[in-house]
Design goal:
The complex is a heterodimer of chains A (289) and B (319).
Chain A lengths: L1 H36 L2 H6 L13 H8 L1 H33 L6 H13 L4 H10 L7 H4 L6 H12 L3 H9 L4 H12 L1 H17 L2 H6 L8 H11 L4 H6 L3 H38 L3
Chain B lengths: L1 H4 L5 H19 L1 H23 L6 E4 L3 E7 L3 H8 L1 H21 L1 H12 L3 H12 L6 H12 L4 H8 L14 H26 L3 H9 L4 H26 L6 H7 L5 H4 L2 H11 L3 H30 L5
Antiparallel strand pairs in B: 1-2
Helix pairs in contact in B: 2-3, 4-16, 5-10, 6-10, 7-10, 8-13, 10-12, 12-16, 15-16
Classes of the chains: A mainly alpha (289), B mainly alpha (319).
Amino acid sequence: MKTSFMEKTFISVIYLILTLLTLVTLYPVVYVLFASVSDSTLLLQNSGLLLRPLGFQFGAFNMVFKHPLILRSYGNTLFVVIVSLLINMLLTCLAAYVLSRKKFRYKAQFMVFIIFTMYFSGGLIPNYINIRSLGLLDSYWALILPTAINSFNLIILRNNFESLPDSLIEAAEIDGANDYHILFIIIIPLSKAVLAVITLYYMVGHWNSWFSAMIYIQDRAKFPLQLVLREILLIGDTSNVVTDIGDSSAARESVKYATIVIAIVPILCVYPFLQKYFAKGTLIGSVKG
Amino acid sequence: MKTSVEPTSNNTMKVSSNAFKTAMKDLSVNRNLYIMLFPVVLYYLLFCYKPMYGILMAFHDFKPSKGILGSDFVGIKHFINFFSSYNFTMVVRNTLLINFYDILFAFPAPIILALMLNEVQNARFKKICQTITYMPHFISLVVVCGIIKNLTESDGLINDIIVFMGGERTSLLLRAEYFRTIYISSGIWQHIGWGATIYLAALSGIDQELYEAAQIDGASRFKQIIFITIPSIMPVIFIMLILRVGSIMNVGFEKIILLYNPATYETADVISSFIYRKGLLEFNYSFSTAVGLFNSVINFILLLSTNHLSRKFNQMGLW
């Protein structure tokens, strides 16, 4: 009787902690969501928790969508993400395929060639000088090409390709399929789950990346969204993006929140659907048995 | 085939010509594979190996107009400057301390979350909890830092709470003594759910018969956690800890750059943020490259030794 009471308390405490944790994790995002549709003057006067929107308005979103730099940067980010993803997936699949084939004689050597770059890199300044000497400063390619392959994702994918049964590939080869057929018609359709995870990894990485844009891109017309967000959210009222937006500090406050909302919504809409693959992806990624 | 049979006076010539021939043979047999690999190799050469040549800058007084080898050679001057400066002790201390506290507080957090989620029987509650704790991982760093800034400002939510508890309003990000606390607690918020996935995967692999046997023996839930669950996921915890230690030199400096300011350099400035500031904001390319090389070499040694450790203890390395 006593142990069962103890067990019940134990479980209830766990439920309680988890509920609290979930609420605390969720709250900052909910706060931003509420604040973005709140009446800006009421918002400025408010102190403490925000449990529902104060008033209701979409004015801030209107202002954001009318602002030329924000809108342009949104487009820039979309462009960079889409082009990067195409290049990422193509190159990662090609590399993973070649390095997973037993008939490829220099597999081990090429693996060392790739893995070495995960242990040792030129570092920040040599990378910067390299991009500059390639003439890529102020170009979208400076954001796309240096991240064309992520060695970590490459290894996840290679391990996955290697785990497919050899007999499939042998059968295809007997039927006269060449390497392109084998990769694109047989292997890729069989690896949808891991490809989905890797696509998500790459996509989140590109969508959220800001540092390389900050060091490589000077031309404001080419700024990605994250860089504009940084000006609005972190540099604050001195930056001209913000002074452009509105005269009153109240309006600026709402616009800040509206910008956050449009920046996080696309990713937050995608990730729950890929959730079931996460555990698998992280497990293959972290340890190779 | 003919040349290999022909007698050659030089043995090494013969070996290398044989190696060359096998390579050429493989090239013709696996032509498609090499075509597929070509853009990949090009990428690695151009964006990973070519910058490594740029490391030579660390030993020169690099002037962009003169090129790397055209600039004056100065030996290890930049390294001596770095090691003898006040900044050296500061950035090394900060790098180590941020990592130490992060391993102390942020490393166990996902493990505890996974253990708690594992006790939850209600599948729906578990799923909601997981989905929501994952979420911050997908929010961009810039936005996370924007939210942190907003919450810690003197009229922000955290200050409202401090005042409610009888404290005084202060802009937390301007106070050096709070930087690590803010950095690490927001880091827990960002990564706890994501970090828990790997432990949950490990937990789902535990043999259920162990629990059944324990129940028959009358072990309570709590005792089952201590004696079955935790020992079962210990290897995974150990690997993750080793990996974490291996990445000490790569502390998330992007977040530091977004959050720090001259008032908090004292506790916030780490080696990598120092490299960024000296190199790209103050244009000391060579000095900064030297500091970067120091960082890379230590990082390289750390990664090699931690990978070696994990191979030794778990019979599996990273690769």
